[in-house]
Specification:
Elements lengths: L10 E2 L5 E2 L1 E3 L2 E3 L7 E7 L10 E2 L5 E3 L5 E4 L7 E6 L2 E5 L8 E3 L5 E2 L6 E2 L6 E5 L5 E5 L4 E7 L1 E6 L2 E6 L2 E5 L5 E4 L4 E2 L7 E4 L5 E4 L5 E7 L1 E2 L6 E6 L2 E6 L4 E3 L6 E2 L6 E6 L2 E6 L4 E7 L1 E2 L6 E6 L2 E6 L4 E5 L3 E6 L2 E8 L2 E8 L7 H12 L17 H16 L17 H8 L19 H15 L19 H12 L18 H12 L2
Antiparallel strand pairs: 1-2, 3-4, 5-39, 6-7, 7-8, 9-10, 10-11, 11-12, 13-14, 14-15, 15-16, 17-18, 18-19, 19-20, 21-22, 22-23, 23-24, 25-26, 26-27, 27-28, 29-30, 30-31, 31-32, 33-34, 34-35, 35-36, 37-38, 38-39
Helix pairs in contact: 1-6, 2-3, 2-6, 4-5
């Protein structure tokens, strides 16, 4: 089913003016082009998760070559969700509870006593028994936390919100109650903060110690992402930072989604638009449909035409497809109208073209669920210190099936990145100064080596030792980095070229993915 024929693409010049240039029967935009990666022959709009997509009206999983992995009928599971932590939950009935699990071979499993199972998060899934009580199972399909709660949310950042007898609590992955207070409602942790509603019906945010980081005064509160959360203050839509600083959006906005990729979809009576982290409108509210930003791109429909935008609101292409989905693992679901009705396939994400030498590692990291959104496009651009922390922590936690402890949400003055705080608490990363982390600075090769070695020594089978080998530019390598540089070389995790290490060179996203991929294999 996989093919690389070109799909018609309508380019967009500055100011979103349409400019179509035909070459040999297909359209191009600048140096980019849109092509079918998996031809449109499926009944449903799929989303790739861990290398699999369900593209059927009923269960019909395919891999990235368009090859079927599991298809109903022929087995018990008829309806299912997406893969997470190696499992997809499903049911044999459209009205039945999701009480089955399928692995990537297509084999079906059940869990003793479980009549309902949620998706896995952080290696744990909430599940209910026959009495309606919730507990948690692990990826070995074992009950880890016995079912005793009236309600249970997913685990995020090592904590899960549960409810028992009208009381809202947060538990850790051992099942111990960590936070128990008089909340009227509560949500999941993200960026080190969780939204909670007080007895007056107002929302604020608590940290991992249960203390208010943002006092309750909002009438609605969304999850934090990139240090920004959408809220309403009274009836005014706006955004807050992690200190609670409020910025109102323009007056006619009547809806705002959570942030992803540094932007948020907004809505007015005229349609959908896009706002950045400062509340500035990047795309006016004049689109009929608009996706969230994933892997650097947003898909949107205007006057029947579909476009692809980057996170700056700049058009990077458009197609004659009858519908587009969101980008998932570098593939965008796309539909064409045929004589057999609407059929779905996948086109490429024009911002996500890895180098040939990096493709296998990138796909492997996707398959393991280890990739982060910010690193999953623009592969030849340099990775920032903040992005590297996110990638390293997600990959290590997923591979080890643990959640790293969080001692302090904000340990640096210039960032509250939760993963930087985790690595700092573990003694794996320091700031560029005593109080500054430099989150937007590029990672150098010697910084990358040091952090990777410390993470590998603590959690993976990484041996230390310099040996007799020396790079020709050894004198350029900082003394604090030399052990790491030579240890990673000896472990075949990070090496130089032409007998040079180039310690101060920045690291690209695809280079970082390969380094972390090699690390977690240890």
């Amino acid at each position: 089913m996989k093919r690389t024929a070109k799909i018609k693409l309508i380019g967009a010049a500055a100011g979103c003016a349409l400019l179509a240039m035909s070459f040999g029967g297909f359209y191009t935009y600048g140096e980019e082009n849109i092509r079918w990666e998996i031809e449109p022959v499926y009944d449903g709009k799929g989303v790739f998760k861990e290398g699999m997509a369900n593209c059927g009206g009923m269960t019909n999983f395919i891999d990235k070559n368009g090859e079927p992995v599991y298809q109903y009928p022929g087995n018990a599971m008829r309806y299912s969700g997406d893969f997470s932590c190696g499992w997809a939950v499903g049911s044999d009935s459209p009205a039945g509870a999701m009480n089955m699990l399928m692995d990537k071979r297509g084999d079906i499993y059940t869990v003793d006593g479980a009549v309902k199972i949620n998706d896995f998060h952080d290696g744990m899934a909430a599940a209910a028994d026959g009495s309606g009580k919730y507990g948690y199972i692990n990826t070995n399909l074992e009950w880890i936390i016995e079912p005793k709660y009236d309600y249970a949310d997913d685990f995020n950042e090592g904590y899960a919100h549960v409810r028992s007898g009208g009381k809202h609590m947060y538990i850790d992955m051992r099942g111990d109650v960590i936070i128990s207070a008089g909340f009227a409602e509560a949500g999941d942790y993200s960026n080190g903060l969780a939204p909670v509603k007080d007895e007056n019906g107002l929302w604020g945010y608590i940290d991992h110690n249960g203390n208010y980081a943002v006092e309750p005064k909002y009438t609605s509160a969304g999850d934090f992402n990139d240090g920004i959360a959408p809220v309403t203050l009274g009836y005014r839509f706006g955004i807050i930072d992690t200190s609670g600083g409020f910025t109102a959006l323009v007056d006619d906005i009547d809806m705002q989604r959570a942030y992803s990729g540094g932007v948020s979809v907004i809505h007015s009576q005229n349609g959908y638009g896009l706002a950045d982290k400062a509340g500035n409108v990047l795309l006016q509210c004049e689109y009929e449909e608009m996706s969230d930003c994933t892997e650097g791109v947003i898909t949107a429909k205007k006057n029947g035409q579909w476009f692809i935008f980057n996170s700056k609101g700049e058009a990077v292409g458009g197609t004659e497809a009858s519908e587009l989905g969101t980008s998932s693992e570098n593939l965008i679901a796309a539909a064409l109208k045929t004589n057999d009705g609407v059929k779905w396939g996948f086109i490429n994400n024009p911002l996500a073209e890895p180098s040939d030498w990096a493709s296998a590692s990138i796909n492997e990291m996707f398959d393991k669920g280890c990739m982060t959104d910010a690193v999953s496009y623009g592969y030849q651009t340099y990775i920032t210190r903040s992005e590297f922390c996110d990638l390293a922590v997600k990959a290590a936690e997923r591979q080890l099936r643990v959640g790293f402890p969080i001692k302090d949400r904000a340990v640096f003055e210039d960032t509250d990145n939760i993963n930087a705080a985790k690595l700092h608490g573990l003694g794996i990363i320091d700031g560029v100064t005593e109080n500054a982390f430099g989150p937007e600075m590029n990672m150098t090769r010697e910084q990358t080596a040091k952090i990777t070695m410390l993470l590998g020594r603590k959690y993976f089978n990484i041996s230390s030792g310099k040996g007799d080998f020396l790079y020709n530019d050894d004198s350029d390598i900082s003394e604090w980095a030399k052990e790491a540089v030579y240890s990673l070389n000896a472990n075949s995790i990070m090496q130089g070229s032409n007998n040079e290490f180039r310690p101060m060179d920045p690291v690209t996203k695809e280079e970082a993915v390969i380094i972390i991929s090699r690390l977690i294999k240890k």
